[in-house]
Design brief:
Radius of gyration: 28 Å
Distance between the termini: 81 Å
Strand order of the largest sheet: 1-2-3-4
Low-confidence stretches: 115-121
Strand content: 15-25%
């Protein structure tokens, strides 16, 4: 009976010690993960903006949305294409992009307007 009690006490002590050790080691990853949340929100925000702009351009009639490449960096959206786009299509694409929440500026330098190699400079969203 004493051996059983001793074995039970030892097992209980080891189990409690393992739980304490586990609780202590599990705090470090939680703290690390909390620091990563801010980075994830920034990335998600740019990713969301890119996705939303691309979706809106694809659904707009008269714009070759599948030919327009969209990139976002800290709210600044860059539009580019490898095919010529008319000035009115370019203006519409920029207007659609400016309406998206989180967009701070739109660069249409990469849109090939009427066969030109470069379009105009950055259009800043009106406050």
């Amino acid at each position: 009976m004493k051996k059983f009690a001793l074995a039970t006490a030892t097992a209980l002590t080891l189990a409690m010690g393992a739980n304490v050790a586990f609780a202590q080691t599990s705090q470090a990853p939680m703290t690390l993960a909390a620091g990563e949340v801010t980075k994830a929100k920034e990335s998600t925000s740019d990713t969301w903006i890119t996705t939303k702009v691309k979706a809106d351009l694809l659904t707009e009639k008269g714009i070759p949305g599948s030919d327009i490449k969209v990139e976002t960096n800290k709210g600044v959206v860059s539009l580019s294409s490898t095919v010529a786009i008319s000035d009115s299509q370019k203006a519409t694409a920029v207007a659609i992009t400016k309406k998206i929440k989180g967009v701070t500026a739109v660069s249409a330098d990469g849109l090939l307007a009427g066969g030109a190699t470069k379009a105009d400079n950055i259009d800043t969203k009106a406050p």
